[in-house]
Design goal:
Length: 196
């Protein structure tokens, strides 16, 4: 799993950048209508789900489950929101809460699977814990107004995006270390195999 993430570290960077961009839009335009906010939210979840799905198909077969479920959940929730943008504030808040909880749980599962492979899995753990806590918080208080939901969603998206970008940079370092190690093994084999 680390090898796959290391080779495709940029996917985490793109997901993080999209999350930060969405978060900034939600914070700086909190007076968006509910329909516009729902469309932005649905598009963000859908794109994030598609990236998770791509990760699932490219990962090793034994490590696909967290990516598959996160991808299906993101695409499903995104399509629901995009096909029903007139949803009420409460329905949107509950959909967002469910998505945040599901995503957080699978980030935690991925962190557990990676704990022996990387030393900085705490970024994934932190992202998962924040996602679950945020989802529970929104589920407990779904009656807050559109402006508050927009601000909270924006702050959450920015925090998640920053964590994903930070993780991508850590994984990129791991990729460089893996490539250097492989180059050393190839060089050592070539030296050892040379005729005397």
């Amino acid at each position: 799993m680390l090898d796959y993430l290391a080779r495709h570290w940029w996917v985490l960077t793109v997901r993080g950048a999209i999350a930060v961009l969405f978060g900034l839009c939600a914070i700086f335009w909190p007076d968006l209508t509910l329909i516009l906010l729902a469309i932005f939210f649905g598009a963000y979840i859908l794109v994030d789900g598609l990236f998770a799905g791509v990760s699932a198909f490219r990962a090793e077969s034994g490590n696909r489950a967290p990516f598959v479920v996160a991808g299906i959940a993101g695409i499903g929730f995104g399509l629901i929101v995009l096909s029903w943008p007139q949803i009420t504030v409460v329905a949107m808040a509950l959909l967002f809460a469910a998505w945040a909880i599901v995503t957080g749980v699978f980030q935690l599962v991925a962190a557990v699977k990676l704990r022996k492979e990387i030393s900085d899995e705490w970024l994934l753990v932190l992202g998962g814990v924040l996602s679950v806590l945020f989802g529970v918080l929104v589920a407990l208080m779904p009656m807050v107004g559109v402006v508050v939901i927009a601000f909270v969603i924006g702050a959450y998206a920015i925090a998640t995006g920053v964590l994903l970008i930070g993780l991508s940079l850590r994984v990129r370092k791991a990729d460089k270390a893996i490539q250097a190690h492989r180059a050393g093994e190839v060089g050592g084999t070539a030296e050892g195999g040379a005729p005397a």
